[in-house]
Amino acid sequence: MSTEPHQAPRAGGADAQPQRSEVLTTSQGVPLRETNKSLKAGPRGPVLLQDHHLREKITHFDHERIPERAVHARGAGAHGTFTGYGTASRLTNAAFLQKDVETPVFVRFSTVAGSRGSADTVRDTRGFATKFYTSEGVFDLVGNNIPVFFIQDGIKFPDVVHAVKPEPDLEIPQGQSAHNTFWDFVSLHTEAQAHTMWNMSDRGIPRSYRMMEGFGVHTFRFVDAEGESCLIKFHWKPALGVHSLTWEEALMINGADPDFHRRDLAAAIEAGAYPEWELGVQVFPDTEEQMFAGIDLLDPTKFVPEELAPVEPIGKMTLNRNPSNYFAETEQVAFHPGHLVPGIDVTNDALLAARLFSYIDTQITRLGGPNFSQLPINQPHSPVNDMQRDGLHQHRIHEGKAPYHPNSVDGGCPFMAGEGNDATAFIDVPEPIAASAKERRQAQSFDDHFSQARLFYRSLTGREQLHVQQAYSFELGKCTDPAIRARQLQALANIDADLCRGVAEALGLEAPQPDREVPDVETSAALSQVGGTWPVSGRSVGLVVERSTPAETLQRLASDVEDAGMSPVFVAPTGGELADGSAVGATFLTARSVEFDAVVLAAAPAAGPDAHPDLDGKAGTPKPGEGLDPRLVLLLQETYRQAKPIALAGPSAETFGAAGLPADGPGLLHCDVAEAIGQISGLVAQHRVWERFDSPAAAS
Ligand code: HDD
């Protein structure tokens, strides 16, 4: 079964409008003879107002930009398919979750704080929003890569966003939380501490959108055909595992390739390494208390450890097509947590309530009116038969005379679901509302702001904990207000004494004592990213070669990398053609270590006259023809520092020493061309050579 597009002109489909070979016209379809010169009174005379083409062209250009999203402005999207496993059938009658039902999807990943042109690898939460074009209408799952949120009530959203966005006087810093106002807010408003802890961990700097989990955050409801309901939390699990950059990599990438995540997603899809996630749910009984294991399921600053409620897989998503036009698709896509389908309903989470209002409201400004769901990327693939009429940018030509219900003028059309037809309708769960006084107050079960931050921190390995400590030290080191630092240290003292001590030491301050009792926690092994092996699909391998590298070596290495599902990039001292006719993918000047998950040397070029002088000071200054090219030394040292595997497939084992690396360092291989990629991919599957971090020349 599949949900075919209905009535919508599909981006990239037959109605797409590429640059065509036909005659250039005005917007009114009038053919043009000239578009490069304006109409003037003589070749050097003034431009004439009557030049309609000039005015039309410039006017359209003047209005090409729309307001960027207030949050999540920077993003990347992709099309794909979701297939239901049928395992959710016992819990919900949502059609797209039934067995083998295929549903088209569009996903937009994003950072939260930065503006549309900001860098991809800043420390931040990532958005993970999925639009399912189901046979029963659009369902949007608008989640993040972190399962908890900063605030418990949507009325605080403008506050947290104003605090993290650039400070308003100078609009500094861009896409960063390392500044006074952010830490001022989270230290005063301690319910933000759990989310902040996740941000300071490696989850805040993902290796790739393809390697992130996604979370619906709120508790939702599933409802079956009999009206039985249960509470659920949505989880996306990436097939490639959850992996992160090191902080040093993130900083370097921000300069070397600010589009790193966007490029990585598109390149993997282009190479056929289609990213995949399994959708799963944690299931809880829909009791009156809506509590589970002492956790208030309506508190979005809390998550439920998987050890207490396992994630049950209910379907799989594959992203297999890049957008053909960024603006039309990725920019104009409009998500909304209120876009629900029969079988899925909301709960009384106060954060969700504000979202149900906010998203439709924001689209009206951003997309210029109430008809944004008529944009191709937002159109449901199921029939739309609403009674909304007119408004800015109305694209439909509605027929009939009676867009109201009930009516007799148009024969009573359209009818309600169930009135002589078999359409399934959205049913609101008839949840009893307890009689209570109106009040601006939070339940007591929302009061504990620290134990889940502690739970997360204590579940990490020592290496990951060190990263957290370094991240807090960096961010608070950028805070210039001593009172804010002191207040945040107090919050850390309540979370974990060792963490607090480490950060205090880095800041040159005294570690405070806890100022309250925080309930102790069971740790959750599922939260650590270290350990395990994962598919290497779409990983990038730098193959260092030179013009003289034999064609068979080039071909063997490239085909072995591709056969392993990874992407080869030939890196050579200069650009041009290689012995097998293929092109150099990156030169020593343009390539940077952070672009590769592993490096294999088929050659070890010596310093040449083209060595970049700026790098000579850093990497030694061999004379031309003597010693390794200093740019190669830099590439190898950085790759080593970031604990990524390096193989010598040709050059002698002394090459490691010549690059200043310990010959017996972990993850340094010396092998035949025929074995190199097999050995390398075994190490890439672990994401990093973790034991390398314990050796002196490595970063942490
Ligand atoms: Fe939000 C965008 C995720 C709370 C108001 N949000 C937005 C996007 C994601 C999230 C992924 C980008 C969608 C896209 O790619 O177009 N937001 C979340 C999550 C939240 C959350 C997981 C908490 C669990 N958001 C939240 C609250 C409010 C908003 C409490 C307001 C009361 N969010 C917005 C917004 C945005 C948005 C301002 C900006 C652009 C848009 O909606 O379409 O309305």
Automatic annotation (TrEMBL):
Catalytic residue list: 72, 144
Keyword Iron on entry: yes
Gene3D superfamilies xrefs: 1.20.1370.20, 3.40.50.880, Catalase core domain
Biased composition (Polar residues): 18-29
Enzyme Commission numbers on file: 1.11.1.6
KW Membrane (keyword) present: no
This protein's GO CC annotations: cytosol
Record key words, sorted: Heme, Hydrogen peroxide, Iron, Metal-binding, Oxidoreductase, Peroxidase
Gene Ontology molecular-function annotations: catalase activity; heme binding; metal ion binding
Per UniProt, location of the 3'-histidyl-3-tyrosine (His-Tyr) cross-link in this chain: 336-359
Superkingdom: Bacteria
One Gene Ontology term from the biological process aspect of the record: response to oxidative stress
Chain residue ranges for the region called Disordered: 1-45, 607-628
SMART domains, per the entry: Catalase (SM01060)
Primary enzyme class: oxidoreductase
Domain (Catalase core) ranges: 25-413
Binding of heme, residues: 69, 108, 157, 355, 359, 366
Pfam families: Catalase, Catalase-rel, Catalase_C
Cofactor: heme
Catalysis performed (reactions): 2 H2O2 = O2 + 2 H2O
PANTHER family in the record: CATALASE (PTHR42821), CATALASE-B (PTHR42821:SF1)
Protein family per UniProt: Belongs to the catalase family. HPII subfamily.
Its job: Decomposes hydrogen peroxide into water and oxygen; serves to protect cells from the toxic effects of hydrogen peroxide.
Protein name as annotated: Catalase
Species the sequence originates in: Zhihengliuella flava
